[in-house]
C-alpha cells in the first residue's frame, strides 16, 4: 500500500478558497500573509482566464479552418450573444444611469487582470487596456505563431472591420457591436483596434449620447445608423 501523501488537516486546508484564506489573514492582521495570498489568488485566476482564452481561440480556429470565415462569423455571433446579451441586459436603462453603466462595464474589464487607462471628454469615455488582457496578450505570448498557430482571418471583412490578417479571438468585438445594433439599434461600446494588435493599444469607446456615434461604426459592420440615433 502506498504511503499517505497528505494529512487530513492538509487536505482540508487545500480545499479552502484562497479568498477565504485572504480574508482570514486580513482579519488576523497578517499583512505579509495577506499580500502573499493576494498574489496567489491573482495567479490562480490569471491561469484560469488564459486557459479559457486559449480554449475559445483554438475552437474558433478549428471552425474557421474546417468551415470557412462565413461559418466562423455565424458561430462568433451566436457565441457572443450568449454572454454579451445577458450582460448588456443587466445594465440599467436610461442616460441618467450612464455613469453606473460605465462603472459596471469597466468593472467587468478588470476581470482581464490588467491595468486600465480611462479618459473622458465632453463626447465620450475611452478605455485603454494596458495591455489588452486577452487578445493582445495572446498575440504577445506567441499564440498566432508556431507551434500554436491560432487562426488569423486573412481577408478583411465585416467580422474584422475590414482589417486584413485579424487575430481570430479579436473578431468578437464586431459581434458585440452587432448584438447591440440588432437588439436596440445602437452599440453601447465601439472598438478601435490598434494598428498593430499586440503592440499598440486598442480603444474601447462609449459615447455619452448614442446620437454622436459616427456613421462609420455602423457601416464597417454592414449596418445603417438609425435616423433617430
| CATH architecture name of the domain at 68-219 | 2-Layer Sandwich
Give the helix/strand class. Answer: alpha+beta
Query: Going across the major beta sheet, what is the strand order?
Result: 1-2-6-5
Topology-level CATH name of the domain at 68-219: Muramoyl-pentapeptide Carboxypeptidase, domain 2
How many β strands by DSSP?
Answer: 6
> Which CATH class of the domain at 68-219?
Alpha Beta
Cα Rg: 21 Å
Portion of residues within helices: 40-55%
Number of helices: 8
Distance between the termini: 73 Å
Order of helices and strands: HHHHHEEHEEHEEH
Largest β sheet strand count, sense and barrel closure: 4 strands, antiparallel
Query: Taking all residues together, what is the mean pLDDT?
Result: 95
* Overall form: globular
β-strand percent reads 5-15%
Which regions have little confidence, pLDDT < 50, spanning 5+ residues? Answer: none
Structure description:
There is one protein chain. This protein has a domain at 68-219: 2-Layer Sandwich (Muramoyl-pentapeptide Carboxypeptidase, domain 2), CATH 3.30.1380. 27% of the residues are buried. It contains 8 helices and 6 strands; from the N terminus they run αααααββαββαββα. Strand 1 and strand 2 form a beta hairpin. The mean pLDDT is 95. With 229 residues, the chain is an alpha+beta fold. The strands form 2 sheets. A 4-stranded antiparallel β-sheet has the order 1-2-6-5. A two-stranded antiparallel ribbon has the order 3-4. It has helices at residues 8-14, 18-27, 31-67, 69-90, 98-109, 135-140, 172-184, 215-219, and strands at residues 116-120, 124-129, 152-153, 166-167, 190-192, 203-207.
